[in-house]
Design brief:
Blueprint (H helix, E strand, L loop, with lengths): L5 E10 L2 E11 L4 E5 L6 H8 L7 E6 L2 E2 L5 H6 L2 E4 L11 H6 L5 E2 L6 E2 L1 H14 L16 H14 L4 E5 L7 H16 L3 E6 L2 H7 L2 E6 L2 E7 L5 H8 L2 H19 L1
Helix pairs in contact: 4-5, 5-6
């Protein structure tokens, strides 16, 4: 059996006496989207920080290409092809799209003290990389701050792909977007998957996760409620699990009982 690009097995993390994660397992395969779902405090942020190299796990195993790893920094994760796009996107709003696209890794021309940024090449590479994901921007000279939230997310995704990401971790990319812009971002997530990347999509919205997801990890208070392949769970069941179906059913039963007493 081929090893996944990345895999966690019974991973746990504590901060003092607080258990942030306990015995969480999932796998991310090439050409698939693994969705991590849960409400605030579910442990999603802790999990992605472990995958991104910002935290180290305390228990369990973290594997890349089947081999155990322990990253010391996000740079270690990047060197292994794991790129993370956080909600704040790490962009400079007043700088142009192409400047943000390279941001410290600009192509250069010249030699020695006469080295300078190759602006023409940088713009061409930016346009080409965006076009490969189907992103057609009017002008790569325009400030990133003038783009919509969905367009900024797409630029960040294209940037990660251009710089060699094999695994793309997206932290709530549709959280602050309207329906149309969320649809745009999800389309580019699907395109990244179709290019052979392994994608980790962090979200609290099952209606955004289900159309593009191949696998669904549900977290609640740091624990896994299960990891399901798409063939094994419907959108309705995913939504019910996310909403705490058992708790809602118990509450509904309790309210009916109270109503019956009051009515009596």
């Amino acid at each position: 059996m081929t090893a996944g690009l990345i895999e966690v097995r019974d991973v746990g993390k504590t901060f003092g006496s607080v258990i942030a994660l306990r015995e969480v397992s999932t796998v991310v395969n090439a050409g698939q989207v693994t969705c991590v779902l849960g409400d605030n405090g579910a442990g999603k942020s802790t999990l992605i920080k472990i995958l991104a190299g910002a935290h180290q796990h305390d228990t369990g195993e973290f594997l890349v290409d089947g081999a155990p790893v322990r990253f010391n920094s996000p740079r270690d994760a990047l060197e292994r092809g794991i790129a993370t796009v956080y909600q704040d996107l790490a962009v400079v709003p007043l700088m142009s799209v192409w400047r943000n696209f390279f941001l410290g890794s600009e192509p250069k021309v010249g030699w020695g003290p006469f080295t300078m940024v190759d602006r023409r090449k940088a713009k061409e590479l930016t346009r080409a990389s965006l076009a490969e994901l189907g992103i057609d921007l009017r002008d790569v000279e325009q400030p990133v701050g003038t783009l919509s939230g969905g367009e900024r997310q797409c630029v960040a995704i294209a940037r990660a792909v251009h710089f060699g990401a094999r695994v793309l971790i997206l932290d709530e990319p549709t959280a602050a977007l309207g329906v149309k812009q969320a649809g745009v971002v999800l389309r580019y997530v699907a395109q990244a998957r179709d290019r052979g990347l392994g994608v980790v999509l962090i979200t609290h919205n099952p209606h955004h996760a289900y159309p593009v997801g191949d696998r669904f990890l549900l977290l609640k208070r740091g624990r896994s409620l299960g990891c399901f392949d798409k063939a094994d769970i419907t959108l309705a069941e995913l939504t019910r699990q996310m909403a705490g179906g058992a708790e809602l059913e118990a509450l509904e039963h309790e309210l009916r009982a109270v109503g019956a007493v009051d009515g009596g």
